[in-house]
Structures are given as structure tokens and as C-alpha cells.
Amino acid sequence: MSNKMVGRPVEEFDDMYTNAPLRTIAHTDDWGLAPGIAVDLSEEELKANVDAIEELRIEEGKYAALAGPDGKLIPDLQEGQVAPSRRPTIEYKKIIQDSGDPGYINRVLLGTACTGLVRIEWVAARYNAVQPVNWSHVEMTQQIPTFYPLRYQVADAQNLIVKQAIEGDFQWVLLLEHDVVVQPTVFMQFNEYMHNKRSPVVSGLYFTRSRPSDPLVFRGRGVGVYDEWEQGDVVYCDGIPTGLLLIHVGLLREMWNDSPDYAVGGAITRRVFNTPRAYWKNPQTGYVNMAGGTSDLDWCTRVIEGDYLRKAGWNEYMDNLEDEKYPFICDTGIFARHVNPNGEMFP
After folding, report:
1. Which of 85, 138, 173, 256 is most buried, taking the most CB atoms under 10 A from its CB?
2. What is the mean pLDDT of each run of 10 residues along the chain (347 residues)?
3. Tally: H helices and E strands in the chain
């Protein structure tokens, strides 16, 4: 007495027997072991060996197992023999190999001080800027960590950005103000400076929101703008704006350590950036005096007078400068435009 079974395709058999007992499969005439092949076993042999029988094929009167318990092919078996048993349910294997890589490294923090209202031109420029391959994360493209202090004075917003950069252990801060419309290559260009560590402070070039519009590059105080350069030059100067500015966090950390705490908007930060303002009466003349300025030039002056670049470890950079009076770089090839709330572009 024999029990004949005609098979379905092996891959279908593999899928269906995953969660079905082999005995049930063997006793139905629905499942075979290979398409169009009949396997003849006596009922006694079937009952005796049903837990051991696996995927069998018949070839020239011999049984052969397609695979054994270790997944390797098994040589042809003599008639009446069966393949070694393997568990009838296929296990799902999940292999985890830890490379030891600590993962994401905080490369650069993009900080934007804003009033809460930005032009669509700024949004389009900011979010269409190309991100370099493998720049700040392991992945090829990744959103840059971004921090938006909203409705603060410029210096206060900048100090909150510095606080975030230090506490987050970032390597660089890129200040991008909400009215500076960048070119698509801006991150690629700044990435060259970060990669080569050419300078701890690099500014892009943009102009004042005025007619005529002047470039925001300075050598000296109270002498106007410095314009003895051609578009595309790398200009060394002692004053740069903070609207499009890359700063190494090592420099900011040294300044942070020497800066007093103060409260702004319920947060405690330190006065790394400061908007200079003073009001006093001269006791000798009786005149009332006022002094004021912008946080960007005040910060530049503080860096130079406090020798913070050397304190931050940029001694070789300082030694190689033609003139230490001009330690900051304005790369005029990193060009941006200034936009006012009405959408007028400068220059």
C-alpha cells in the first residue's frame, strides 16, 4: 500500500510549511515536494518517518534531500532513507553587529535670530541650499540642527544660540540671520572651511539695506567700510557682521568662560555678545554723553583685545597671518543678499 503525493512548487511549499506541522502536510494530498514529481512511500514508512522527512526529490529512483539542518545540500539518499530532521518551523534570524561608532557627531549648529516674520525669499534660499555629502551626520543628507530664538534682541538671541552650542557640544556655529538670503552653495562653501580648519571665524559677504548699499567689511572703527578688494577675494579684516558668520565653538567656549551670567526671557545664559550702550554725564563739562553700537563689531573688538583666538588654541593660525590686527576672514565668494520686510533686495 502506498501514498502518492503530487507536489506544488518548492518555494510555495516553503512558505506554507513555515507555520504548519509537517505531519499535517504529509497526510494531505495538497502538498508535494517539487513540481510535477511523485514521491512513493508506504503508509508505514510515512508514519514512521514523518517527523524526519523534509524537502525530498526523486532522481533515478533515489531520494535526495535539498537541504539539511545546517542549510547545506545533502548527498543523494538510497531508497527508503530519509533526510536528517530539522525543525519544521523556519526561524526568523536577526543579526545585530555593533560597530562601536558613537553615532551622530554635533558638527554645526545653525542659529537664526528672528522676529518671527520672515520673507518667502529667505525660506526658499535657506531650505534649497545644498547640503554637502556626509556633512553633519552619518547619512548622506540630513537636516542641520537648527535653533530659532524668537522675538529677542539680536545679542540676546545670539547668546542663547551660543548656550545651545556649548551645552550640545557642537563643533561650529553658523549664524544666519532671518533677512540674509543665501546662495544654494553656501553650506558647501562653509564646509570647506570646516573641513580644512582654515580659520576659526569666516563671514560671507552681504551689503547694508540702504541706497547706496555698502559691503559689510571693516578695517578699523569709525572709518567706514573697507572696499579695496574684488568679488571672490578672501579679505582679512577686524570687523565682520554676524548675519552670515561661521565660528568655531572652541573660541566661543573661551569667551563663554569669561562672560557674566544674565537672565533673558526666563533663561540663564552668558553675555558673549553684547549690544554696547552707555549714557552718562560728564561732571567736568556738564554735558550728557551717549555711546552705542552693534553687537557684531563689539564682539569682534572683544575677540581681538582679549586675545581669544590664541586662548582657544589657534596659535598657528595667528602666527601665519600677515597682520594680526586683521584676524577675521570675509570670503567675498560666499555672497548673499539682504532683504527687507517688503521684499526689496540689497544690493
Report:
1. 173
2. 35 37 31 37 49 41 39 42 43 55 71 85 90 56 56 85 90 93 95 92 96 95 93 96 96 96 90 82 75 83 96 95 96 96 93
3. 10, 18
DSSP-derived 3-state class of residue 35:
strand
Distance from C-alpha of 133 to C-alpha of 135, rounded to nearest angstrom: 5
- φ, ψ of residue 31 in degrees (nearest 5): -120, 130
Specify the 3-state DSSP secondary structure of 146: strand
Contact 131, 191 (CB under 8 A): no
Integer Cα distance of 200 and 308 in angstroms: 11
Q: What is the four-CA torsion angle of 226, 227, 229, 233, rounded to 10 degrees? A: 70
Give the chain's domains with CATH numbers: 2-77 (no CATH), 108-346 (3.90.550.40)
